[in-house]
Structure formats: C-alpha cells, structure tokens
C-alpha cells in the first residue's frame, strides 16, 4: 500500500509594470495634442488600480494518490486512484482530475499469460481568455492595457465598466476574464492481452485495447461585462463530442541462440486501428436577467443559428511489420525492420507506404585487443542507422476529398430562394499520400571506470519529402479551404550529447547528468506556392512568420528597424528595395525562433536519507517576436502602456530606443520587437528526506519520504516579456516563437509526502 500527496503554491514569475494614473494622464494629453482620439480624463482623477496585482494571484496545486499491489507467482494485481487539482495564477483558471486504474496479470498456465488493465479519468476545468487575435489580446495583456483609474468590474456590480469614458472599446481585466469557458471530459481506457508460449523461445501475443472519450465545453458570457455581452444581452453555447478508438495487435516473436555465440530474434505482426469522432454544438443569446445563475441554452430567448452545427468523422490505420535482430557474441549487432502502413486519410491508390530501417553496431569493448583496457573501458560501442518513416498527422480525415460548406440564406424581399445554400470549400487531391522522412545517424556509447563516466553521442541527418500542407488558392478560384497537398521538402541535421558521471561515491554521493542538442532546420522546397505567411498581428494586420524555400521554420518577417531618429522621434526602417521610400517590398527576415542549441544539467546529491536534486535547462540563440509590445509600447490609442514608454522620444536630439507617441508607423512588425530568447532556468529544485530503515522497523511503515520541490525559481534571460518559454500558437510547427498575451509559466513551491505500508 502506497500513499503520495503534495501541496504547492504558484506565483507570477515576472511582473511588467504599467503606467500609473498620473503617467497615463500625461500620455493621453500628449496623444490628444497630436489629434489622436482619446477620452478626456478629468484633472482631479486620482484613482489607481494595479491591474497585475488584481488579475494575478496565488495558484494552489494539490495531488493525492493511493495505490495497492500484491500477488504471487500465479496472480498479480495493482490498483491505484488519485485526485489532482490546480488553481491557476489567474483567478478563473483551474484544472481538476480524478483517476482510477487497475492492472491484473495472471500466469494461468505455463504456456499462457493473461493481462488486463482498465483506467478511468474525469477531467474538468476553466480556461483563461488569452486570444491572440482580438483587439485586447485577452485578459493577460489587459493587465497592462487597462487604464489605471478604472474601477474593478465585478459580477455582483456589473454596471461598473466606465462606458461613458470608453464605450465598447475597452474593458478591465476582470471583465475581459468574465466569460466562463469550462470544459470536462470522461475517458475510459482498457486493454486485454493473451501471451501464448507454445514452446521455448516462441511467443504469440494478441492485444485488444480501447479508448473512449466523452467531452463537453460550455461558454457563458454575462450581459454586462463586455461590449459583446451587452449588445447580445448575454451569450451561451454548449458543445459535446464523443471519440471512440480501438486497436488490435497480433505479434509473434521468436528468440533463439545457437552455437553459443549466435543470437537471433525475429518478430512479425499486424496492427489494426480505427477511430470515430462525433460532435455537435448549440448556441444562443438574449439571456433573461431573472435567471443569472442558469448558464444554459435552454433559457436563451434567441438561438444563434450560425453557431449551431453537428459533425462526425472516422479514420483507420492498418499496419504489418517485421523485424530481425542478430547478435554475434555481443560484439556485432544488426537489426532490420520493415513496416507496411495503410491510412484511410489518403487517396485510394496512395494509402499504403513501405517504411524500412536498418541499424548496425560494433561493441569494440568486447574485442580481444581491448582486454588490457577493461579496467578503464566498461563499454565502447559505435552505431549506425538508416530509416524511412511516414507521417499522416496534421491533416483532416477526408483531406483528399473535395469539401463543401453550407449556410442559411434568410428570406428577403429580393431573395426568392431562401434556405440552405451549399458552396465549394476545398479542392480534392486524388494523389494525396504519406509524408516521408529519411534519417541517417551515427552514434557512440562509452562507459568508463565501472560506469562512473558514461557518454553518448548521436549525429543525424533527416530529410522530409512530400510535406503535408494545406495550400491556399487564388481568390478567383473561389475555394477558401484551399487544397491539401504533398507540397515540400525539409531537412534537419544536428547532434546530441549526453554525459553522466558519478562524481562522488560512498556515504556522500554526487551524480551529474548533462545533455546538449544542436539542430539546424531548413525548408528545401515548396511546390504550388513558394511563400506562406502565418501569425498575423491584429493591431498591424501584418504576419510575423514567413515560410519560404531556403529558410528555417519559425523565421520572423518584417521591417528592419534602424532605431529612433533623434530629430523626428520615429523609427527609421531600412530601405531594402532602395527605391527611396518604405513599403511592403522592404520587409525581410528579421530573426528566427530556432535555437542554436538547447541544454540541461542535473546534479543529485545524497547523504544517508537526505537527497538534493537540482535541474537547470536552457536554450541559446533563439529569438522571440514579442508581439505583446505592439500593444504595450505602441502609444497609438487609449490603451495603457508599460513603464518602458516613460523613456519615449519627446524632443529633437533626444537619444532613446523608444519612439515618440501617436505615430502608427512606429508599430509595424519589425526587428524592434524581436528579442533574444536565450535563457537559463532553474527548472526544478527538490530536497527530500527518507526515514532510515532502523526507524521504520519500529512502525507499520515500509517507507516514508518527505520532500519540497521548487519549479521555475530562477530564470536568467534578456527577454523582457513574462516568460521566454512561450508560444502564442501552441503546438504549431510553423508559427514558432511568437509571444502575444500568452499565459506565462509560474514559480511554484510544492511540499509532499510518500508513504509505503
């Protein structure tokens, strides 16, 4: 029986200060003198709110896990249950999970082993609005952009939003975060396997597994907090989805040793997988004031017909595989693999792909000529490999088919044919097939002095052909969904190093693990379109990311800033085209999100029952497009700004890197907003103590450990945003390194206990 638990607290890692009331009033007067439309603020206005302190609070993390396991040589079982809750550093953000899992293994006969597992989890939470495409970029940036004298909006006093001064153009952070965006899911996973052993060395294992996931998303916007809420008298939506997936694996393995030094392992098998998804959504508005606590479409007076939809899709994957491993005297190792995969996501006639791989290794340390070195060299092996892999991710389940879209045409005096209108959306591609990556690698494994020093290195080259991309088409084609194609070629090459050392042994132990990775990425070829743009900024309407032949992914695109002109106070941009004026033709590459290398180092110290673990991680050479600064240093409208603008240009001859206020030409996507994203972070620091066995014998416990862990405690970086480990576009492989009002990581301290009975 084991019980594990921890309790932790989180805080915002870094604060960005905004202008106070007097500083803001001065900026507004300055903008008004330049004919920028801003609200008139009375001279006697002195109210002040530090919106960062209001929006960001203390997060609380809790975790409880209980498990029991037992068994004998015939039957073994393990059962666990737990609960996790995480209240975010922004008040409304939270996440909870309750989980249960059971595993049972049984050796029913000498020739048969059965395994059964089942797991269930219930997740629920609430998200924070941090949209990168809205006027306000969500609640995160509103902590800086909201005028400092505005009153704190509260659902108990919803009339407070200073509409007379700002109308629908602005809202304070509590109103920006007023919408309830809740989600919940129930997931059930199970697997049953039968492992037959008809005779020595031969195994036939059949496994059936399933994964069922039901989820629900609810959105509620009260009638008072935002302009959208006030204009629609409140809005509500309910979305549900169901995903079911099953997999059937049949694997046969045969292991045999002959002539004492020859070892052969063979594997053959098949895998069948199928998934189906169904979803629907309904929305409404005009919510009655008399039922403020009922957040359901059932009380909406009007349905939002444009937001009502239903959909379903399915996909399947069939795989046949084989593998042969040969080992001679633990000196020469050879492995050959082959897979045949067929995916329903590709066009008929192009669904199957063949993906072979081959690897070989030579364990030099087992050769006779290394006999005299074995006191020093425990293991020395060189490796080489080649492989071809396929990718079907990143596209829709029916991407090879032409798609249509429908919309409702209302009856009007001029329209004799109201009803459902169906128009083309995307083009078909009868040749859509697998994205393929070819990789070559060579590596070395070295162990010295009875494994006190272990070193591993790998050098690799990857070339990806037939990139899966959804390509936009010209406007006159009238297919807004474009076409999904195998449309490019990309390469990655680099090296990885891992070093592990036992620096001190005995009562006091000190171990170190260090890793270092280099990677260079380049897009070699594009097909139909030679240039793509991503990550459009709402304020400027300009894209921050370019995808182009010869460039790495995550390349920033914009104007090259030459600094603030000391005479005019405006940003000088480089005239790339040399035509005497600045225009779109002068945009160029202004940075890249790809790091030169990433690294990490862990040091573990232990003495008797006391253990200290210190883990640092870092990145060097990457850049970040700090789009948040467009809104926090732009000085072109009524939004409050960061204190950086106190250094703005105010008179001819003034030397500064902050331009004058009131000129929208100063906020173009440019190198002004590209910053060094390199960092070194104390990712985790853990101090633990395990009660010695001599004391445990006096109790009913078999183990007791207490620990304290700190996360993100220290960060060394030149980046001026909240957090250098951010990306506003999530897991996108193209739009990398953009920070636009992104939810930051927090500093966390956790205390916990692990008990075994």
Give a written overview of the molecule:
The protein is mostly beta strands. The chain contains eight helices and 36 strands. The protein is globular and about 95 Å long. Mean pLDDT is 89; it is low at 131-137 and 161-165.
Report the principal-axis shape.
Answer: globular
Structural category is mainly beta
| Secondary structure tally, helices | 8
| Rg (C-alpha, Å) | 31 Å
Describe the structure concisely for a colleague.
The chain is mainly β. It has eight helices and 36 strands.
What keyword list fits this structure?
mainly beta; single chain; 22-stranded antiparallel beta barrel; globular; 36 strands; 4-stranded antiparallel β-sheet
Blueprint of the fold:
Layout: E1 2-12, H1 21-32, H2 51-55, E2 59-71, E3 75-87, E4 94-109, E5 112-126, H3 138-145, H4 163-166, H5 173-176, E6 180-196, E7 202-221, H6 227-232, E8 235-258, E9 262-285, E10 302-303, E11 309-328, E12 332-343, E13 352-363, E14 377-391, E15 403-409, E16 419-426, E17 435-448, E18 453-465, E19 468-471, E20 483-486, E21 488-504, E22 508-526, E23 531-536, E24 543-548, E25 555-558, E26 561-564, E27 571-573, E28 588-592, E29 597-607, E30 610-620, E31 623-626, H7 628-632, E32 674-676, E33 679-690, H8 693-696, E34 703-717, E35 738-739, E36 746-756
